[in-house]
Every structure is written in C-alpha cells, then in structure tokens.
Specification:
Blueprint: H1 13-17, E1 24-27, H2 34-47, E2 50-54, H3 57-71, E3 79-83, E4 86-88, E5 95-99, H4 100-109, E6 118-121, H5 129-145, E7 149-154, H6 159-165, E8 170-173, E9 181-185, H7 194-208, E10 212-216, H8 220-236, E11 240-244, H9 250-258, E12 263-267, E13 280-285, E14 288-294, E15 301-307, H10 310-318, E16 326-330, H11 334-339, H12 354-363, H13 376-388, E17 392-393, E18 396-397, H14 399-405, H15 411-423, H16 426-438, H17 453-464, H18 469-474, H19 479-496, H20 506-520, E19 526-528, E20 536-538
Parallel strand pairs: 1-7, 1-8, 2-5, 2-6, 3-5, 6-7, 9-16, 10-12, 10-13, 11-12, 13-16
Antiparallel strand pairs: 3-4, 14-15, 17-18, 19-20
Helix pairs in contact: 2-3, 4-5, 7-8, 12-13, 14-15, 15-16, 15-20, 16-17, 16-19
Amino acid sequence: MPDVLRLPIDEHLGAISSIPPQGAVVVAPPGTGKSTRVPPALARAGRGPVWVLEPRRLAARMLATRVAEEWGCRLGAEVGYEVRFERKTSSRSKVVFMTAGLFLRKLVADPGLANVGCVVLDEFHERQLDSDLALCLCRALRDRRGDLDIVVMSATMDPLPVAEYLGGARIVETEVRSHPVDVRYMAGDASWKLEQKVASAARELVADGNGNILVFLPGKREIERAQGAVAPIAERNGLAVTPLHGQLDSAAQDRAVRSKERRIVLATNVAETSVTIDDVVGVIDSGLARTARHSPWTALPQLTLQPISRASADQRAGRAGRTRPGTCIRLYQHGEYSSRPATTAPEISRADLAGPLLSLIGLGRADLAWFEAPPAAAVDAARALLERLLFVADGSITAAGRKALALPVHPRLARVVADGIESGIGASACAAAAVVENGPITAMAREATSDSDIVDEVELLDEYIGASPRELRGAGLDARALSEVKKVVRQLLSAARVKPTGEIDPDERSRLLRKALCAGFVDRVCRRRRPGGPELALAGV
C-alpha cells in the first residue's frame, strides 16, 4: 500500500473495524476521511466484502477511484464501483461503491446477500428514501442472518436515534479543527440573474487572495450559465473554470476535484459532503438545490428547485474553512437564511412510495419496521396504485409485479413497457418510458405531428438515433438528452428481454403506444367536461 496522507478518522479505525454485532454509527465532518478510509479498514479486518452505499453516482465513482489509488490496486480489482450504466468490479473486489438505489435492486435479486459481509451507508444525514429503505432492510436481514455488519456514516446527524434503531450500535465521533469563515450576504441588485450574482461574488473573492473558489449551484443548466459569466473574470486572474456535475465524463469530473491549478469549481450539492475539493478558501452559495419530490401532475418523482436548509448552508460555508480561514458569500439576504428550516425534511415524508412498496411486497417485507415511518396516506395511495397497475392483488405481488421489479423504472413506466411488449411494440414502449423518465430530447418547441407528444418524441428518437452531433443540432435536438435516453432504452430492452419484432404500420404503432401509456397512467386518464374547455374529469373520480 503506498504512503498516504494521515487523516483525522485514522485514529478511530480500530474501534470501527471491531464493531459489535449491533453495528456502528460514525459521525465525522467532511474532509476527515470517513468515506475513503473506513470501508477498506473494514475489509482488511475481515468484514468484507464491503458494499458502500452513496447518495450519488458521481460520488461512488470518485470515491472508488481514490480508495483504489490509496490501496495501490487497479480500479475494478480489489476496489470497484457499480452504478447505473457503468460497472468496474471483479470477483476479487473487496470494497464496492454503489448508489443506494442500485443496492435495493440487487437486494431484490438476491434477498440474502450471501456474498456480502458489511454494508456501509454513507452520508446518511441526507435522508434519501433509498438510504432509509436500505437501512431498514439491512437491519431486517442482519436479524435473520446474524452475521451482516452495518455501519452508518454521516457528516452532521445526531447518531443516537440510528444507534438505538440498530439495537445499540457503537457510536464513533470525530472532531476536526475548523478555521473561521467570514460569511457575507449578497448586496447586489435583487433583479440580477443567478449567473450575474455568481460573477459579482467571484470578482470579490478573486480579489481577496489565493486558493480555490467553490460555487454551489442547483444543476447543470445553472452551472453552464455561470460558466459563461465567470470565464472572463477567471481568465483575467489566471484561474481555470471547472464544472462538476453527474452528466460530465470522468476526466472532466476528475479535473474539477483533483487538478493542481487554481480554479473556480462550479458544482452541484455533491460537493457539500460527498466529494472533497482541496484548498478551497472561498465559497459562493446560491442557496438552492434540486430536491426529489412527488409531482401530483405527472404522478412521477421529479426534481424541483428548492431553497436549502440552514444546516446545508452551514455545511457549504464550512467548506471554505477546512485548511485555513476562508470566506463564504451567500447569494441571498441574512433574513432569508434565518427564515429557512433548520434541516431538510427526510425524503420519505414527501416521496411517492409505489416503487419502494412494490419492492417490499416482493421481498415479503411489507411490515418492515421503518427507522422513520412514512405517512400512512402515502402508503395507502401507493398500494392502491399498485393494485390498479395489476402488480399487487390481495396484498401479494403478482406475476406481472415480479416482472416489473426487474425494470429500473417507476412502476407506472414498468406497466407501459409490459403493455407494449404484450402488444408487440416492446421497443417503442421502452423508448416511451425512457422519454417520460428523462424528459424530452427536443431542445426547442416543435410542431406536433401526432396526438401525443410522447409518440412524437419516440419517432424522433427512432429517426435520429444514429445521427451526428451536427445533425442533431440542425434538427433542434439535445444531444446529451438523447444520449441519456438511449442508455435507458438499452437498459430497459435488456432487462425486459425485448425481442425484435417485424414491421408495423406507424398509425397502428402510435395507437398501441398511446394505449400502453394510458395503462401506466390509468388514474390520469380524463376527458374534457366540454369540447375545447379547460376543465377535465379524471377517470374514477
């Protein structure tokens, strides 16, 4: 193993590696090394193979890369990662990083996790629904197996409730000296666009001195706009500008995190706790994040723009004081900060539960003892939907429900795919499900060519699936969106085992595809109360 920098968590690795049967809860601030040092220590102590659950794909890949380097092995050998659309593991892998969502799919396929010795739930304070569900299922599996170790890690949470839920887990807390951070609030014009505010704050921080500047923005679109706004400032002062979000290739992500050049890093909230960027002395906080919420209109999970909590704001500001005194500029007023909630509500309190409930019923764990129980009304609504989709009957999963579990999409979209396969248009149904999940591939408004915008998108996908970037731009299509949709389509075709079918009349295909979409959104079928009027009457209401 090569020489590596000693980190604050290292002195606690012995206590963590010798955890009791009840497990361990590790609380350590960002930058202390918990995500990179704890999993390999557990593996070396004979508690592996160790699966590490991360809230984001980007974090899983980057952490695996760092641990492999510190271990002195090739990525994919003793240390690997597995996320949607990408896998680097082998039969020798002792530490595997993955998202919590992928872990749940693996658990459905192998309920006993016979070849796993320890599950580490990292960044649990984010309280994502998949992480909550993974914790509950791991506890239930440990109680049956008796030899599964559970380690829960967080940067900020109160460890006692989780420790008690696990039956008396060992609590390990690490403190690290933080340097003072000068927190300032935006004094610019309230009418400015977000990228104008970022540029103003960047000018102020660049003038303050050396070190890197980390900008927290809610998503890819905002990052691209801010990149254009700060580019002239960075160029005049000899800084690079590096974006950091999940849709970048691995080389661009690595440059943002590990480059030695002085830079302005434009990042999503992945840089809040999951990924550490060295030598940050200036932070610009937009105060915004995209949060997963259930959309009552589309009836699917949807990322919505939301103000962050005070805890998240403090976490972001703290990134400027890890190695020396720093500065944080918040792009909002102090009064806004004071009026925000102390913490972010757990996702389980606001999420659609149809997918998780189908998994639980399929595992025979519908009576699961939750760490924090979801609202009863949400559970009842999810159960009613699964019954309408014919995936659950009399409290048990149906044969169709079993097939739906194999598809990495919401149950509604699984029903679309199932109906499409039954009608002989499986490939088109997979394409429609991918478009609904990922959003349109069109980059601009287009004239409708059918009675359904989804059908139009599927036809465009078929027409331009092999087109060059120049051809896509000329047709008004979003090349990156098209690429993401194609990945989902390939995954669905493989998971659903869709076989090629013969030619079908386009009008008939359109009719069958619309029928399949209605099957997945059966409770969203409606008719106008009067011709051309805006009022709709939903089926069954």
